[in-house]
Amino acid sequence: MEIFEYRDGTLHMEQVSLAEVARSYQTPCYVYSANLIRERIKSYQMGFGAHESLVCYSVKANSNLSVLRLIKDAGAGFDIVSGGELERVLAIGADPNLIVFSGVGKTKNEISRALDAKIACFNVESEQELQRIALIAQEKNVKAPISLRVNPDVDAKTHPYIATGLKENKFGIDIDKAHAVYLKAHAAEHLQVTGIDCHIGSQLTSVEPYIATVKRLLELVAKLNSEGIEIEHIDIGGGLGVAYHDENPPNPEDFAAELTKLIGNRVRKIIIEPGRSVVANAGVFLTKVEYLKHNLDKNFCVVDGAMNDLIRPSLYSVWHKILQVRKSGAQTKTYDVVGPVCETGDFLGKDRQLAVVQGDILAVIGSGAYGFVMASNYNSRPRAAEVLVDADRHKLIRPRESTVDLFVTELNCL
Which residues are catalytic? Predict the structure, then answer.
């Protein structure tokens, strides 16, 4: 689905001018396409065909309540990694039976709250976590539904910060130890084994690592089933990549269809946890050119957006396409697009060909995932506004923070 196009020299998202959005809500701000988010969820759902399945959107990618409500209304569930994310999805009316709880450090309070909410499943990442869940379930006299997150030791060939399926990563239970842990879980009175889970990394642009992973998991499933431990679902995690630059990932429908064919009838239900591939390319980050600075070696385009707003270029050295919201007749030059934060690492893009003048608006494409959710108040900068576009309408879904918001909760102890 194409959501961006220039009309009369101005970049539009769906039917809305991004110049109008910048005027209405000021910059910097995030803008999301409702229709592309809906389309991406539907694409996954269609790929599974008639096989029982559940798309559990990974809340950590973008947790704005309006975005979550869109995804719920599209028929998806949620993958959460904290008690805060649980409260977010419950706040928008999510069905607890469509919520899975991942993450390596679940606290006693988080587990207790999730049991009270009657979520669908805990994706368990260690033996000690399993013991903790069993103890809390015993205290409540309930059975906790669990699956083990199995670490298959598969190299996803992605950035080391977002690789999660290798033995040296902190995530999951070693596949060679998983069988023994499943036996303990099956024997525990207050645990109910329901499935098997994995997640090998993020921004994967090939289906091959998933195929290798699922094949390893299915071998374990067959062994467990033969021993009377019924595995009802397989959760293949998330991590499908998107095209930021020249990547060529499979589309969600084809991806889901290929894995469904591989799994077949060996488990009753397939769960998938997409995040980035649902919201990344549905979002842009709008920022205004404050100054153009030239020296002998470099041209700098200094904008009002910074690494505290969008940290991905600084943290991961990733490339985001940067477009001018309005095409101008200025001379094209090579610029580093940098922000006002007092760090050399504060940049949104380097060596970009831009024809800009002071006051122009730039759109950083592919910013819908791991954008606002990773924002901070570094340099005491208020966080940006968030806006939702739906066809020809736009609305504010999170107001810009004020400087007063930055310290209203602090105690003056002088």
Answer: 342
